[in-house]
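Figure 2 data, in text form.
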Amino acid sequence: MSAARLAVVGAVGEAAGRPLRLIRCANASCAEARAACLASPPCDTVEVRPAGRRARGAAAPPPPPTATLRASFASFGSRVDPLLREEALLCRSLAAWARSGAVPPGAYAARHRRLLWRDHFCDEYAAPRGEALPDLGAALPPAPPAPAHCPPREAELLVFTYHNRPSAWLCAFLRSLAFRGVPALVLGWQPHAFARANNVFYFTDRVYTYLRYLRACGSIGAEAKLIFCDADEMLQLGAAPLRRRAEELLARTGAQVVLSAEARCMPEKLGKLAWAHSVASGGAMHKKWPRCLNTGNWIGRAKPVAAMLHRICRPCQAGLDIDAVSRRYSRAYSAQVREWVYSEQAELMRLYLAKPPNESGWTLDFQQRLFHPNFWFNPQADTRVLPDGRIKNVHTGSLPAFIHYNGNSKAMWTGPHAPAALSAALRRAYEKRTGDTGLHKLDAFLRDHVAFLGPTFQRDTNVTFADVCRGGAI
């Protein structure tokens, strides 16, 4: 592609095209990103975002500007529903605006303009040059009556995550489990299916998928402890300490389900109510302890977890069967099931705060014994990196089992706190224990102890770490 046809724009969001690669620029010109795009078809757009802000009280300079290489959308349309054509036309106009140069490189478009693409589910009506439009619009037929792959009844601790395809984060997460010999189940695995750009779709699909799986696997032991994790995190404890922490947390709180606690509430308007709710729960709490519910992690036993998921499943509350929800949801244009696409965190927080403490059966991991969502914490002021590279919270005094790089902590936690630094520290510890400097033993663990399950919950037995990590590694 010639330089004359290359569009260099400011932070306009997904409307500028399908993301291909993120580049950290050396300076404001981001010349290296332009060169990389010219050399990397189908890239024809460089979205340059301004430098980040320096963390309050930090001596380090702010992060450099970043550039996202993108392939612009060339075709728009809807296969099935004439009523969606207007949405497709709106998305076409948003794409034209994004590449028009109205927002110069290094500047941000107004937030409401950036959100329009997501709010109208435009990725479902658009395709880059040379690609077909998403094949959406029809409900799936009922699944054949094949038995689901379920964990053994005697399993005492089960770690779940939801991820549909390979990624650097899933690679790092599963490696951290393999380093410590902790088995896992990956639900939602569909590496060749259409990937929607709107994360909210996957947040609710995670609810539907977990609920379907727990119903399909009634053989899970009544006393088994189930830990649910996002994939953008890493385990920094061993298998035995993890089991002890899980048992201690459920015993100490007396709760049926314990959820991750975050330093600031999303939605933010619930912050004061969440603070008052935590105070009313009893027990002395440091003012810096997190008080806000986060659905990136939770732990409980199968029956109460399924009951909680059913409470936050809106179509279930309307009387629909969860299997019928799944068949419709996974194939529909999101605009056709708009009421089923919602923030499950906001829904669960609303239900959690609606009852007095200790009455719902749910509580938060205020002391972060298991879960540490990084978002809203200042890494320098609020945490300490131990000599072995693991991360401890200075306010709770806890060395959490899972470090969750949610929100902007993926980019804003730098130096020894960065995801790559923690991943490297966990690898060094593994290599020192095992001598496996080439990570050759991990594929055997993945084959024997990690189950990748698609929509019918049949196990894909051919997945290797080369497959999981083909999108890069942290």
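Caption note: The radius of gyration is 23 Å.
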